[in-house]
Amino acid sequence: MSMFARLAALGSATLGEAWPGARILADPPRPLAPEMALAGRALPLSCRPGDNLALHRAIAAAEPGDVLVLDYGGDCGTGPFGEIMALACQLRGIAGLVTDGAVRDSRQIVGLGLPVFARGLAIRGTTKTDTGRVGAAVTLGGTEIRPGDIIVADADGIVVLPAAEAGAALAAAEARAEKEAGIIARLRAGETTLQIMGLEQQEHRT
C-alpha cells in the first residue's frame, strides 16, 4: 500500500492527533458524500470568483496523485467545477479537489467516485477569461497550503502536513491506530474506558 493510501486509511482525526506538526483546517469544506476520502500532494490554485480558467490550467498541469486545492475566495454563487472537470481529473490520476467555493453536478461527481470537498453547491456557471494563479500558496480555513504539502481529507476534517514530515507523521499515526485497536479489543472483552485509561482513582477523588 502506498504512503498516500495508508494516510487516507488512517484518516484525518488519527493523523491530526498523532502528529504535532499537523495543520488542521478550521470549519473545513465538506465531502460531497460521507465515504469520500483522499490523500495526496497539494497543487494550490486561485480562481477569481465567477471564472474557472485557472482550474482548467491546473488540471492540465497536475501530476498523478496531486490534490487540487482551490482558493475561490469563499464564494458559493457559482459552480466552477462539475462532471466534465471531475472526469478530466480522474483520467489524469488527480486525487481529488478541495475548495472553499461551490461545485455543481454533485450526483454525477459522486457517481464517478472522485473525492471532492466543497463549501456548497451552485448551478450557475462561470466565464473562462481570468488566468488566476496555479502553483502558488493559498490559505483555506485559516491554514496556509503550499505546493507539495500533503493533504489528508475525509468526513472528519482536513489535515495538512509538510512533505518532509509525512513519513514521521505516518509512523506516529500508525502507532496511535495500533494503540486504539488495543483499547477496542479490551472494550470488547468487557473492560470500561475508566479501567482502560486508569481514570477510576480520579472518579473516586471527585
UniProtKB/TrEMBL annotation:
Cofactors, names only: Mg(2+); a divalent metal cation
GO molecular function: metal ion binding; methyltransferase activity
Transmembrane segments: none
Protein's GO biological process: methylation
Annotated keywords: Magnesium, Metal-binding, Methyltransferase, Transferase
Positions of substrate binding: 82-85, 104
Taxonomic superkingdom: Bacteria
Binding site for Mg(2+): 105
Pfam families in UniProt: RraA-like
Protein name per UniProt: Putative 4-hydroxy-4-methyl-2-oxoglutarate aldolase
UniProt source species: Cereibacter changlensis JA139
